Each structure stands twice: as C-alpha cells, then as structure tokens.
Here is the input.
Amino acid sequence: MTYGSIKVNNITYDNNGADVDVAVSSLTSASSLLPLTGGTLTGNLVAKNGVDIHRIVEGVSENAATPTNSFEIDVNGEVIKYYTGDLTSNFNLNIRGDATTTFDSLLSAGEALTCVLVVPNGSTGYINTGVTIDGASTNVKWVGGAPTSATANCISAYTITVIKRATNTYQVLASLANFE
Here is the structure.
C-alpha cells in the first residue's frame, strides 16, 4: 500500500548537539521515519518551505494558588500559564526556559516564541508592571501602550511574543485582553 509521496530535503534534529540530516525521496509505509498517525516526535522539527497543520493543541499549566507579585513562565513546559486565584498586587513577569535552563539557550537569532499568562482580577484590579527574560530587564512594546490601569472582576490574558535578535537581545511585543 502506498501512502503517497513525500519529498523532504532535510529532517534536522538535535542529537545531543550533533545535527543529523536525513534525505527522503518517498514514503511507502506509515511506519517509516515519521509517525503519520499518532505517535510522538520529540525535539525540533525544522521545515524550511512551510508546514500545513490542521490542528495544534497546546498544554496549559494551571495553578490554583493566589499569584504573587512575580510570575515565572517556564517555556520548556507549557507556554500558557493559567492562574485561578485572584491577583493581589501588580506584578512582574519573568520568561525563562525553566529553573535550570535559560530562555536564551532555547532560541536562535531570528526565532520567536509566544507565551500567554492568564490571571483573574477580583474586586480590585491589578496589572503587569514589567517583563524580564532570564531575570534581565527588557524593553516591551505594547499594543496601544503599556497598561496603566486595571480592570476589576475580569480575567486578564497577557500575550507576549519574544523575538530573539542576538544573544540575550530581544524584541518583546505584548498585548493585554480583559475578559469580563
């Protein structure tokens, strides 16, 4: 049985720092090389001429704790962090790989990553007052300007796109949406 023809110039993955290129001219078995139905591909898949994706499901890190004045988004886990306890103060957001991995080590120059922080505001509203990457201050460009006042009794979603321009050099674009 033939599943069609797939021409792939290179499949590149990180094998403990050593790249491996695989040339494939056709695919005749569903079990050849890539999991076509089900399965898991771990690591990075690089496609240089586009990818047709019909559905993406992202993991959400849900935390029932009341948020404090500083948040960590560990992008090595989920890139969507959802708190269910009301904010109690204005806060800073730090984006990092995880407790032992820097954000900087995860992206090459010219790559971007988008993450989302979802936090509820109770009867008193609070806002984000800064974004750091790996604990270092960064310049953030906000849609419509940085938030200056908060909305009470809503769920706030902060969407932040980080574009890596060079080592530890980023352009950070952010937006705030309040769901009432």
The chain is about 0% helix and 45% strand.
